[in-house]
Design a protein that fits this description.
Elements (H helix, E strand, L loop, with lengths): L1 H20 L1 H28 L3 H9 L4 E5 L7 E3 L6 E3 L24 E13 L4 E8 L12 E5 L7 E5 H7 L6 E2 L8 E8 L8 E4 L5 H10 L8 E7 L6 H8 L3 E5 H5 L8 H4 L10 H36 L1 H9 L4 H33 L1 H8 L10 H28 L2 H6 L10 H22 L4 H17 L1 H8 L8 H12 L1 H34 L10 E5 L7 H11 L2 E10 L17 E5 L24 H8 L2 H4 L16 E3 L2 H7 L4 H8 L3 E3 L10 E7 L2 H9 L7 E9 L10 E3 L1 H6 L4 E10 L5 H14 L3 E5 L8 H29 L1 H9 L5 H51 L16 H22 L13
Parallel strand pairs: 5-10, 7-9, 16-20, 17-19
Antiparallel strand pairs: 1-11, 1-12, 2-3, 4-5, 4-11, 6-9, 7-10, 8-9, 13-21, 13-22, 14-21, 15-18, 17-20, 18-19
Length: 955
């Protein structure tokens, strides 16, 4: 035991000194191993630090309170909830009855002697130095000890008076205000002074102000009500602190009154799943990942880690071989002084061990330092503060062990190769005869065939992506194992090459031990790049084919659905000034009830309208039944497939058209200028508008008499209640003549009515916005200026500029090409360095007999280029196949979903799936031509023309 220990101590000492002498090579290998360790360790530290403990999360959500009480809005009927209090439902099923809806008095559920804080949240448009900013308003006594932890005070103090507020730091940055500034809400004469700044630890980019309870929201709602605008509803919860806290039994008792409770005690000590009544209810059992899904995730993670280690070993292995080759005299001396093959292997393996340990330490230490130093930037990127700087030693040690293992694995082949050399060959520098293994290529061929069969099965028979990915990975490993044999096949092309590249190719073939790992490393990197690039290009072609334009190319729409359109004039003016507008079409929308009502609002005085679909035009698969049953169940599969292609079902039961800009009810109030902007060329459309008719682009709403019926519903709340009870929705029906336009793309607009016709029919119209035709596609600078101007207006503007299909993968493809190029150049450079170490004696002889200095550069360049070219060619061929397999699998999946949709009767609106396979020729051209050429030129440039002249060593 002591002898073994002493031999390894000596081997490690020799390896450490050798690594210190060859600093450049050692740093290269260390960097290759340490960088992935740095990235993974930093990711582990970041994720663990951002994961909040239960106590930390409770502090941020409820401060020091024992519970947060929330009205479930079910009119006080008993509910069932999960332990977190985030999910609840009524204890009783209301399948055929009206679902209870309405508030309950939460204050009656507080235990006697409790301390309570009200926490209300709403929104308002606040004045800033730039204009208006839509912000969240939170009424909470933030300075109370119970609320400590919810808001983190940064400067100043929390409000103590009714006319004081605090604001988040992001709000102050966005608004241009500061502590001491005053602000007010739009339309409100009251002003508030900012007395402090704070941040929300879980939402650093929140635009929020804090006021005392009752100081802002109630009075602001009155201001909106006076203006005829939708007041919205403040969301109120209660922070409760009570002696003894709230156990799970206590929470369940409070649930019987229609109140949900998030309890600190329950979250710190949650009940068993069997003790949660909600989970016993059908369909509410909670969601858990299956064992198969977890196994698939682990298998995928293990595959990624394994392939990454293989890539590093393939890159680092030749570097260790370079070191062993340059130290062969030293290794020969060890053998001459009694050392056996075990000691030689130990010395080379110790090199991998030393570099692996150094890489593990370096990567882990740098990860700790960088993560700690960059914590503010990481928190900003993740939009939340870390709970604590969480260092988990076991996880970091496990990651570091991968570095050590990688170093050892990378040194195994060089160690075995070095130990097989005789002492005489090592001392004299003879290279001897190198024979490549005949077994390894056969194993590789078997793995290639098996992996290809698995991938083919996954593509043609199975729908599982993991099968295709696993088969492709196995096939790629098989190609890697076959690399020495494939390199030999490349050697046969040397007869057609000029002298220098022929010498380089034959040298690479004769020395496959150093060429094959480098070629395999390039192959692996290029195969991954080509696979991802091919998949991305194919997916982009599919997305482009399925893209639906919302407007004609270059057209712009700017719509405002809130506040009765009072900001529409400003929005129109901003677009007109800042974009190259050619023509403009102003549009309005029909408003039922108060002009300030939001679409589909259930506030008092708010209604809506609907275009009534005649019975004859309703899709039989989607008609409303009296008993609430599914009408499609009355038809057979064949009948449903036939009805799916029926025009009534293709247009959907409401007659909606695909794509376009959504407008409530689908009916727009406008004139013929909108037809011009949308490119509608129907000759009768303009005439129909002038005659007071509705121009309809959908066939479903028009009855056999050529009219459209519009139901005016005065009260949304009553209408929704009647719909739940399956009763007819009350409303006044108005019938208007219509003109049908077919064969024209209306970009989602169902119908158009002129302002005069809408007024004559008794409809109230409010400004909606405008559609613009442009002279040229707006530039990025113009868009940015417009976005800034709209932000100053402070309105919720739905802005769309039709740019056509925009590619999003070009930068990805470029990044992948650069990555593959760097790996290729690195691997080829390592192989070239090893080749120079092998051929140093020959190069000295060439210099001694008068060969020109450029011979060294030329030979070095071609050696590097040959390795890069072989790896890129093999990698390109190996990378296309996995992408094809994945695309074929996707095609089968989408075809199956399409057929299932037809069986159910709702696939008529879908096209037959188009899943193309597109090869990114630009990426392949860059890899096949530019990368090997660049590698050759770079190697030639960095190689010295003249080596140190020395006499030829005697054989």
């Amino acid at each position: 035991m002591n002898k073994w220990l002493h031999s390894w101590r000596a081997a490690i000492r020799i390896a450490r000194r050798d690594a210190w002498r060859s600093k450049g090579r050692s740093f290269l290998v260390l960097a290759m191993i340490a960088l992935p360790i740095l990235g993974v360790s930093a990711a582990d530290l970041t994720l663990r630090s951002s994961e909040l403990s239960t106590e930390e999360n409770l502090s941020r959500t409820m401060g020091a309170a024992d519970a947060r009480f929330t009205d479930a809005q079910v009119s006080g009927v008993p509910i069932l909830q999960d332990p977190s209090g985030e999910t609840n439902t009524t204890a009783e099923d209301y399948q055929d009855r009206v679902w209870p809806s309405g508030p309950t008095d939460v204050t009656k559920t507080f235990p006697a002697g409790s301390t309570v804080l009200t926490d209300s949240t709403g929104s308002a448009k606040l004045t800033t130095t730039h204009g208006l900013l839509q912000s969240e308003v939170r009424e909470l006594k933030a300075g109370d000890p119970i609320a400590r932890g919810i808001m983190s005070l940064q400067d100043g103090r929390f409000p103590e008076k009714a006319d004081e507020i605090a604001a988040t730091t992001h709000f102050l940055e966005t608004s241009g205000l500061s502590i001491g500034s005053t602000l007010s809400a739009r339309g409100d004469t009251r002003t508030f002074r900012i007395v402090g700044s704070y941040e929300l630890p879980n939402d650093l980019k929140a635009d929020q102000i804090n006021a005392l309870p009752g100081a802002f929201l109630a009075s602001y709602a009155k201001v909106l009500e006076k203006s005829g605008l939708d007041t919205g509803e403040a969301y109120t919860t209660y922070l409760v602190k009570s002696a003894g806290g709230f156990t799970w039994n206590t929470v369940q008792k409070i649930n019987t009154k229609g109140v949900a409770v998030t309890s600190r005690a329950v979250l710190l000590d949650p009940p068993a799943k069997a003790d949660v009544p909600l989970y016993q209810k059908e369909g509410w059992g909670g969601f858990e990942d299956s064992a198969a899904a977890r196994a698939a995730e682990l298998a995928a993670a293990g595959t990624v880690v394994g392939l990454a280690m293989l890539e590093i070993c393939l890159l680092a292995g030749p570097a260790f071989a370079v070191g062993a080759r340059r130290s062969r005299r030293q290794l020969g001396l060890v053998g001459a002084n009694g050392g056996d093959r075990h000691h030689i292997r130990a010395i080379v393996l110790s090199g991998g061990l030393v570099i692996g340990v150094a890489a593990a330490v370096t990567g882990t230490v740098l990860a700790l330092i960088l993560t700690f130093a960059l914590q503010p930037f990481l928190e900003a990127a993740m939009n939340q503060r870390f709970g604590s700087f969480d260092v988990r030693p076991l996880e970091l040690l496990g990651i570091a062990f991968i570095a050590v293992l990688t170093g050892l694995l990378a040194a195994i082949v060089p160690a075995v190769t070095a130990s097989r050399q005789t002492v005489l060959a090592s001392l004299t520098g003879r290279r001897g005869v190198r024979r490549s293994s005949r077994v390894l290529p056969l194993i590789g061929l078997g793995a290639l065939l098996l992996g290809g069969a698995i991938a083919l099965y996954g593509s043609v028979v199975s729908d599982q992506f993991i099968v295709v990915a696993g088969g492709s990975a196995l096939a790629e490993l098989g190609v890697v194992a076959m690399t020495p044999a494939l390199v030999g096949l490349f050697g046969r092309t040397g007869r057609w090459l000029p002298l220098s590249p022929r010498l380089a190719l034959r040298d690479a073939v004769r020395n496959r031990g150093r060429t094959a790992p480098a070629v395999a490393a390039v192959l692996a990197a290029v195969a991954g790049t080509v696979a991802v690039s091919t998949y991305a290009a194919s997916r982009e072609a599919q997305d482009e084919a399925g893209y639906t334009a919302k407007l004609p190319y270059g057209a712009v729409s700017a719509l405002v659905m809130e506040d009765g359109g009072r900001d529409v004039p400003q929005v129109r003016d901003a677009v007109q000034r800042l974009l190259p507008v050619d023509s403009r079409a102003d549009v309005q929308r029909i408003q039922v009830g108060k002009t300030g009502c939001a679409p589909y609002s259930e506030a008092p005085g708010c209604g809506r309208f609907e275009m009534v679909i005649p019975k004859a035009n309703e899709c039989p698969l989607w008609v409303t039944t009296e008993d609430g049953s599914d009408p499609s169940e009355k038809f057979s599969k064949e009948q449903r497939r036939k009805l799916a292609k029926d025009w009534r079902c293709v247009e959907n039961s409401g007659g909606d058209l695909p794509g376009g800009v959504f407008v409530e009810g689908g009916l727009i109030v406008g004139d013929a200028s909108l037809l011009k902007v949308l490119g509608i060329t129907d000759a009768g459309a303009q005439k129909a508008l002038a005659e007071g008719k509705i121009v309809s682009f959908a066939k479903a709403p028009i009855d056999k008499t050529g009219t459209i019926a519009i139901k005016v519903i005065a009260d949304n709340k009553k209408a929704n209640l009647a719909d739940q009870e399956r009763k007819p929705i009350p409303g006044e029906v108005k019938t208007l003549p219509a003109h049908l336009v077919t064969g024209q793309n209306a970009y989602g607009v169902r119908a158009l009515i002129s302002p005069e016709a809408a007024k004559a029919a008794g409809f109230t119209a409010v400004p909606l916005g405008s559609f613009f035709a442009t002279d040229a596609l707006p530039s990025a600078e113009q868009r940015q200026k417009l976005d800034g101007e709209l932000a100053k207006i402070g309105s919720d503007v739905s802005l769309h500029v039709e740019e056509g299909f925009v590619s999003k993968t070009s930068i990805v493809l470029l990044a992948l090409t650069v990555f593959a190029g760097l790996v290729t150049i690195g691997a080829a450079g390592i192989a070239t360095g090893l080749a120079q170490a092998d051929a140093e004696a020959d190069l000295k002889t060439l210099s001694a007999v008068g060969a020109p200095p450029r011979v060294r550069r030329t030979l070095s360049g071609f050696q590097c280029g040959v390795v890069a070219a072989m790896g890129v060619i093999l990698g390109s061929a190996a990378g296309v196949l996995p992408a094809m397999g994945l695309r074929l699998t996707e095609e089968r999946q989408e075809l199956r979903f399409y057929q299932e949709a037809l069986d159910q009767g709702w696939g008529g609106t879908q096209d037959v799936p188009y899943v193309p396979i597109v090869v990114p020729w630009e990426t392949l051209a860059a890899l096949l031509v530019a990368v090997p050429l660049g590698a050759a030129l770079l190697a030639a440039l960095v190689t010295r023309s003249r080596g140190a002249l020395a006499r030829r060593e005697a054989a």
